[in-house]
Design brief:
The chain has helices spanning 12-19, 58-76, 82-98, 100-111, 115-135, 171-184, 199-211, 225-234, 247-259, 283-295, 312-328, 346-362, 396-399, 415-422, 438-447, 480-486, and strands spanning 24-26, 29-31, 38-43, 48-54, 150-158, 161-165, 188-192, 218-220, 240-244, 264-268, 274-277, 307-311, 365-368, 386-389, 406-412, 427-428, 430-434, 452-455, 467-468, 470-471, 474-475, 477-478, 488-496. With 498 residues, it is an alpha/beta fold. A 7-stranded mixed beta sheet has the order 13-14-15-12-11-17-18, sandwiched between helices. Strand 1 and strand 2 (29-31) form a beta hairpin. The longest helix has 21 residues, at 115-135. The protein binds nicotinamide-adenine-dinucleotide (NAD). Residues 165-169, 174, 192, 194-195, 224-226, 229-230, 233, 244-246, 249, 252-253, 268-271, 302, 401, 403, 429, 469, 474 line the site of nicotinamide-adenine-dinucleotide.
Length: 498
């Protein structure tokens, strides 16, 4: 029986799903793991086991890949025409909308995030499926004028079987960012959700079945990086791995691809994004935004504006306001809709606490937070929003991705300094600048080494807009037309007319 906060009830469908033993989804069937191993998925709000989930080994991964290959060759591409692919993806989006509340509850139980934030994620995932449902019928090659005695055209074809490995911070949304374009392009998929948050991917399989996708087009294997993720990256019959996660694991993925069948790789990795505030910015707008860009999803966000640079004339006033707002954020069980839920696991809690201790040892000034929250929250992985002041960009807490509710704040004196310090990182995922001076804003956007730059805003996303990392934040961009390039390959066809 799942422990729930007083007054909270879950949907019947959620309870029924959790009451049933979990299985892998392979070749359109629910199957037990071949080696009979399981792992526990925990509720980070109280440490309780919510489900025992199959631990897929290489044997299961191989079976999933064989099912995907069979589906690709016999049932999916090119047999199912693009309009039908589009309809199936739309149907899936409809079913997700119908079960919106179930997805929200499962995501909150598994990841800890507040229900209303989970809602935003599920709606984002649905939008993603709808956007790529539109693309399925618009993937085209071209004709290329050459010597008049030849006709040359290109075909844009799916890659075949793609392995999709996703993290735990936005479980369903990250899966949708990959599944939607991969399916629209005509690939068959083997998806591995993160071991901390496997439940929404498994629930999605029920809807994939209900929507009528042919068997084997989508397969889901659950388990940790080792052995499950690694088995995907080393598999000899997977054509591409699309990975979202840490830069450390991203390197392993590339190396496994290089050492196996040279499968294609795209990577969405970590970040340490600068959020730069000039003295002429709209301070009311910026202080609300900076609060959320520092602590959204309890700081477990790849684009987190975890390095705040504030122009000196407004630094003190800004910091007082940020501290006041951070201290007012409510923290608790996501089912009660607080501002912030717990971090995802004991491991993540320990990691963040380690960085908080390190920051103090390194000489940064702890302005607020820095503690595990006590009282009746003791059982869960709760942390108070933490702000450090500093003037030294070499500190580890300034350079390394912490992935928790920790922001480091520093003052700067002029534009070129802000740009130089914003770029002083091995990451290049996102950056933001706040100013009313349009020249200054565009100059910043031009000079910043990041895949996305926001001007007078933060965390703005749309399925149509490419999103990817520069530097060590990734290879390739998801979303928009860019993802079509990630899940297709071009073939040139020459016709000799003589
Ligand atoms: P992680 O790298 O530890 O794990 C991500 C996924 O990889 C999980 O499914 C995990 O089981 C799997 N994995 C781990 N080791 C593996 C291996 N050797 N081979 C194959 N798979 C393996 O990351 P995490 O802790 O789950 O997520 C947090 C990280 O994800 C952060 O660095 C964050 O910035 C990044 N992230 C990036 C984006 C983006 O779009 N750039 C989005 C969300 C999260």
């Amino acid at each position: 029986m799942i422990q729930l906060p007083a007054g909270v009830q879950l949907q019947e469908k959620t309870l029924a799903f959790l009451a049933k033993p979990q299985q892998l989804f392979i070749g359109g069937d629910w199957v037990d793991p071949k080696e009979g191993q399981y792992f526990s998925s925990l509720n980070p709000a109280n440490g309780e086991t919510i489900a025992e989930v199959p631990l897929a080994t290489a044997l299961d991964v191989n079976q999933a890949v064989a099912a995907a290959r069979k589906a690709f060759q016999s049932q999916w591409y090119p047999k199912v025409n693009p309009a039908t692919r589009s309809q199936l993806i739309h149907k899936l989006a409809d079913l997700m909308q119908r079960d919106l509340q179930v997805f929200m509850e499962l995501e909150t139980l598994d990841n800890g995030k507040p229900l209303n934030k989970a809602k935003y994620d599920v709606l984002g995932a649905i939008n993603h499926f709808r956007y790529y449902a539109g693309w399925a019928t618009k993937i085209e090659g071209s004709t290329i004028p050459v010597d008049g005695s030849k006709l040359v055209y290109t075909l844009r074809e799916p890659l075949g079987v793609v392995g999709l490995i996703v993290p735990w911070n936005f479980p369903l949304m990250m899966a949708a960012w990959k599944l939607a374009p991969a399916l629209a392009c005509g690939n068959c998929c083997v998806l591995k959700p993160a071991e901390q948050t496997p439940l929404t991917a498994l629930y999605l399989c029920k809807l994939i079945q209900e929507a009528g996708f042919p068997e084997g087009v989508v397969n889901v294997v659950t388990g940790p990086g080792l052995p499950t993720g690694e088995a995907i990256t080393q598999q000899m019959d997977i054509d591409k791995v699309s990975f979202t996660g840490s830069t450390v694991v991203g390197r392993k993925i590339m190396s496994a691809a290089a050492n196996s069948n040279l499968k294609k790789v795209s990577l969405e990795l970590g970040g340490k994004s600068p959020n730069v505030i000039f003295a002429d910015a709209d301070l009311k707008a910026v202080s609300q935004s900076a609060l959320w860009s520092s602590f959204y999803n309890t700081g477990q966000e790849c684009t987190l504006g975890s390095r705040l640079y504030v122009e000196r004339p407004i630094y003190d006033e800004f910091l007082v306001k940020l501290k006041e707002q951070a201290e007012q954020l409510s923290i608790g069980n996501g089912l009660n809709n607080p501002d912030l839920g717990p971090v995802v696991s004991q491991k993540q809690l320990d990691r963040v606490l380690h960085y908080i201790e390190l920051g103090q040892k390194e000489g940064a000034e702890l302005i607020t937070g820095g503690e595990r929250c006590g009282g009746d929250l003791d059982e869960g992985y709760f942390l108070s929003p933490t702000i450090f002041g500093h003037s030294n960009d070499d500190l580890q807490i300034v350079q390394e991705e912490i992935f928790g509710p920790v922001v480091v704040v520093s003052a700067f004196d002029e534009s070129e300094e802000a740009i130089r310090r914003a770029n002083n990182t091995r990451y290049g995922l996102a950056a933001a600048v706040w100013t009313k001076d349009i020249s200054k804003a565009h100059r910043f956007a031009q000079a910043t080494q990041a895949g996305t730059v926001w001007i007078n805003g933060y965390d703005l996303f749309d399925p149509a807009v490419p999103f990817g990392g520069h530097k060590e934040s990734g290879i390739g961009a998801e979303m928009g037309k860019s993802a079509i390039d990630l899940y297709t390959q071009e073939k040139s066809v020459w016709v000799n007319l003589t």
